[in-house]
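Tokens as discussed.
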């Protein structure tokens, strides 16, 4: 029996994963954040499936709508945290969604950055290998140190 790198999701973590998926969908389809949030609430998050944790739908909606409404500001901050020669266009779209959601939480919530980063690293592990997890960790740590240096420990 091999151990999976995938992390089981609970409560708010399930909301964060759904928010990443919704942000990805918004970027790919051009649909409004409100439309995608409603779709997720109606078709995905309110279904009762065995083994699927119930997401905090209020947190989910706030996260998606907030992250998307602040996308331009967030993208400037994210671009400033990338290594020279890198641009957001060069980053995989799921990774952009992860970074945008995490950045929104770092800016707009009182949740400690270390908790936020850990949550999004666990989500990243479900999509990518260790190199992408390291990349996301580096970008989010850089941002957290710049935006909330006193609370980053």
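Sequence:
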């Amino acid at each position: 029996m091999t151990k999976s790198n995938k992390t089981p999701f609970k409560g708010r973590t399930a909301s964060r994963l759904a928010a990443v998926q919704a942000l990805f969908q918004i970027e790919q389809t051009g649909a409004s954040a409100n439309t995608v949030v409603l779709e997720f609430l109606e078709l995905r998050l309110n279904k009762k499936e065995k083994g699927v944790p119930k997401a905090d739908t209020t947190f989910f909606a706030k996260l998606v709508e907030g992250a998307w409404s602040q996308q331009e500001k967030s993208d400037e901050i994210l671009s400033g945290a990338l290594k020279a020669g890198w641009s957001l266009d060069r980053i995989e779209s799921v990774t952009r969604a992860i970074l945008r959601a995490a950045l929104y939480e770092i800016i707009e919530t009182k949740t400690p950055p270390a908790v936020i980063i850990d949550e999004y690293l666990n989500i990243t592990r479900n999509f990518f290998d260790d190199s992408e997890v390291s990349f996301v960790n580096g970008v989010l740590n850089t941002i957290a140190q710049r935006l909330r240096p006193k609370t980053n420990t």
